[in-house]
Design goal:
This protein is α+β, with helices and mostly antiparallel strands and 138 residues long. The chain contains 2 helices and 9 strands.
């Protein structure tokens, strides 16, 4: 599933993107449930990761990472209304050499009111395949 419609800003420190919830599978008559905001933030982090990788080596495939989670996700309303554009802004707080990182993510409506926010933790090992194989039970 892809929620992001468009990346509107990118730098090595962060990314800005937009999405407009539509009625359908995930969104009911009231709109997209606000708990999906964590996935939207995660997708913005993935887009940032991909663009940053491409900037460093345009021929390399995008690196694979995983969302570890957040300790606190706050939403100001229960849904993101269908047809109303939402802007997501993520800013990298920390990234260590082993691949662990944290990003601040905030979702805004057109009036720049905060709809949801969280600090999201991610993991992007240098070689995802090797890491996964090393984690298999023996």
């Amino acid at each position: 599933m892809v929620f992001l419609d468009e990346v509107t800003g990118f730098s090595p420190q962060g990314l800005t993107a937009r999405f407009t919830p539509t009625s359908g599978h995930w969104a009911g008559s009231e709109g997209l449930p606000a708990f999906m905001g964590i996935e939207i933030i995660a997708q913005a982090i993935a887009a940032h990761n991909c663009l940053l990788s491409h900037e460093n080596d345009p021929t390399a495939p995008p690196p694979i990472g995983v969302l570890l989670g957040t300790r606190r996700y706050q939403a100001s309303q229960p849904n993101f209304p269908a047809g109303k554009t939402v802007t997501v802004v993520i800013t990298e707080k920390v990234q260590d050499p082993q691949g662990f990182g944290a990003f601040d993510g905030t979702l805004y409506d057109d009036a720049k009111r905060i709809l949801a926010q969280a600090t999201v933790k991610v993991f992007r090992p240098v070689n995802f395949r090797e890491y996964m194989i090393s984690q298999r039970p023996v």
